[in-house]
Amino acid sequence: MLPPVFGVLFDGLAYGMLLFVLSVGLSVTLGLMNFVNLAHCAFAMLGGYVTVTLVNEFGWPFLATLPAAFIAAAIVSVALERTLYRRLYRSSDLDQVLLTIGLAFISVAIAAYIFGTTQQPVETPGLLRGSINVLGLGLGKYRLFLVGVALVVTVLLVAGLEYTRFGAQVRAAVDNQRMARGLGIDVDRTFASTFALGSGLAGLGGALAIEIVGLDPNFAFTYLVYVLIIVSVGGLGSIAGSFAAAVLIGVSDVAGKYYAPELGAFLIYLVMVVVLMWRPAGLFGRR
Amino acid sequence: MVPAATTVTPQAYLQAQSRWHPLEIAFWLSTLLPFILFPNYLSLASQIAITALFALSLDIILGYAGIVSLGHAAFFGIGAYTAGLLSKFGWGEPISGLIVAAAVAGLVGFAVSFVIARFRHFTLIMITLGLGLLAFETANRAHWLTGGSDGLQGISIWPVLGLFKFDLYGYTAYTYSLAVLFVVFLGARRLINSPFGLALRGIRENWVRMPAIGADSRAHIRKAYMIAAAIAGLAGAVLAQTTENVSLESISFQRSADVLVMLVLGGAGRLYGGLVGAVIFMVARDQFSGIAPQYWYFWIGVLLITVVMVLPNGIVGGLSQMYARWRRK
To answer: Which domain holds residue B58?
Structure first.
């Protein structure tokens, strides 16, 4: 029999995995393209609402809506990238912050207009309900599923960026845009695809998050803070860094709520500020 | 605008900048209009003056020194809680309360400025966000001192100069807020049109080159940041005193984001930008949020995107460009 502390650790780990799926897309776009995208969680929220609508209105099974959430967020993000984002690739941080905060404000208002301000319920399949007993610990099946999804995403991303032709193009375009263009790489398309990938992952994260943290129009801002913390602590553009930071933040947040509820979110903010002061590029940052 | 003649010395440039334009005088005279035209809206006018003061403080570090801050409400909140607590524990004299609040906020700003001056770009944005959130959590957790989410109760402010009581209609409140705003504005105007202000603009444009001509970027940023923090504290204190209440909202991320939005709408880096932005933002919020509070941010979002895309210098910047073109004709 394991002591209950392992149950807390497991919940924290699963929560961290959820945060990882939510934030890794931002780490990719921010780290590779240097674009401060504060609307990232708006794409996550879009994925969440796509899942809610498909499950509740059209009777799709929950698992089948996950790819739909990914695709919807990716398509919308490419449309915005083509029309708005791309004009600001060379602008200051401030302009990027303002544009994307504006988009986030709009997304919150639209979500409130269409779906109201209440929490959205979603039905998960029976397969993912309940828990499995391992050595006296009740491990939630949905949480195990989250860990599985996060691991698959990590492997695919790392392999995709390190070993495929597309990954090589992305890295080349980021390291030296002019040289990449000179070699015949379509940099615009590469960036658009990267952006779609990052936002699609956010959409997937948003869909997965409903069961754990719920979904309402403020999602775009509530989880933005967590996502930004993970990305900056982990280090921009580092997938391994995001993974480590997500686990760290997830476990400390859940453990903090169990053992020191009076501290609230204080601990996490403190961790972020201290880490950034110690290593401005994040734990695994390259620059 | 000064003609780009080769003979303009820095002194002559600054002198030309600090001359009062007739439009400026008209602007300040028009701030008296609410007394005559909208006597029922003096409380709102007072809120606007306070918000404008807060936007002015952000303008000094963002518009002139180029430091993006997502946690500026921390200093507003510190000022508000300082003034509120001072009155709660028996000292309700407003003007000395303001000075103490500004001093406390300035001191905290001075301490924080050593961190701020060391970082740039995304790291700096995240650190200011983190410090702002830490300040919020501290105020939230220190329930015994600040009242937490219930707000700070039991503030009672003595009459200003022993003569003018804060009344229900906001006559005193607006006069008081406007007077503080005007005095601080004069100071800020003097600061911006001084060699120090010019050095700040130089740092904004080129952080690395300024030390080469003898202006230490970090030292300048520390000073500017401390001054901005003190002004933000002052704004918070005025709010606490005129409303006799301090809520957690005064130190929240929402307030930091709002002030950034209005400064950019109005036009950062041009003193009046924050003031004009505050007027537009607060009046629009008062009008629209009554109809549908949850949708009003839709229009703010649209405005923000428009400003970033087509009006890079904000409303005041766009207007002054039009004015300059009209003058040349």
So the answer is: 40-251
